[in-house]
Amino acid sequence: MSTPARNEPPVALRRLLPSDAELTAEQLVAELRPWEHATAQRPHVAVNMVHTSDGRATVDGRTAPISSLADRQLFHALRTRVDAIMVGAGTLRVERYGRMVRDAERREQRRLAGLQPDPLAIVISGSLELSADLPLLQDPDSRVVIVTAAEGSIDGVVADVQYMRFPDGVDLGAALARLRGDNRVRCILCEGGPRLNASLVAGGLIDELFLTTFPQIAGGAGALTIMDDALLGAPVALSLLSLCESAGELFARYAFEPPV
Q1: Which of 9, 35, 88, 191 is 20 to 30 A from 230 in CA distance terms?
Q2: Is residue 221, in this structure, part of any structural domain at all?
């Protein structure tokens, strides 16, 4: 997802819940302190996704057709409030991720919040089928942890890349525990894709969901939803924490309710 130009005027979001207000994306996220909700066992994990009104997470395999300026501003504002950003290998390849916070003003916002100027990038890649020419791996300012079941390494990277290996198959719960203990990660923003989201929700590893509903019907047989085809023992209850609107687009923040 592209970074909004700093000369683009901030989009006003009309907050409907918990109280009426008009806020920019940066004002909306300024009150978030997810690092305070980490446990000793694992980081606090929030997922940020966009979908159409009929539940499609992509159109023609990309999120760009269902991403507005307001959504992009919120997307990048959320990145200023976490220790790390997690993404699956497929999304990394399709969206061509680069430096997670490219704007100097946003890096300063992170520093003022007590965070590192650049968040740690966490890539989930079971097979390690990643090309060294991916912009993220060619960025000298990026710190990357690749969680994988594969041996070997990626030649020709410029970023500071470390590997977290699970030879018997990636264990996301164990990976989060190691990120908390070894890397001191307190809060993670997961940006998908749907298959990674599905694995996290199936393991009970998600605490919050930021969900943008784009006012469009996309159709498309077999198209992915934000949770792919996660097999759950029972539906997972969500609690609505806030709801904003802009030009018919809805921006919701949910808490995952603990299982009963």
Answers
A1: 35
A2: yes
Count of domains observed in the chain? 1
2-6, 162-166, 171-175, 209-213: segment of lowest average pLDDT: 2-6
Count the neighbouring beta carbons within 10 Å of the beta carbon of residue 202.
17
Tell me if 146 is assigned to some domain. yes
Alpha helices in the chain (DSSP H): 25-29, 69-78, 89-95, 104-112, 172-182, 194-202
- Tokens representing 60 are 């023609």
At residue 186, what is the residue type? R
Give the pLDDT confidence of 186-217 residue by residue, as tens digits. Answer: 999 999 999 999 999 999 999 999 999 999 99
Instruction: Give a yes or no: residue 98 inside a domain.
Output: yes
CATH assignment of the domain containing 159: 3.40.430.10
Separation CA 14–CA 75 (nearest Å) = 17
238: containing domain: 17-256
Sheet holding 44-52, edge to edge: 21-23, 13-17, 238-246, 249-256, 208-214, 44-52, 187-190, 84-88, 120-124, 143-148, 160-165
- How many other CB atoms are found less than 10 A from the CB of residue 127? 10
Per DSSP, what are the bridge partners of residue 237?
none
Entry pTM: 0.94
Beta-sheet pairing, 44-52 with 187-190: parallel
**Whole-angstrom distance, CA of residue 253 vs CA of residue 130:** 32
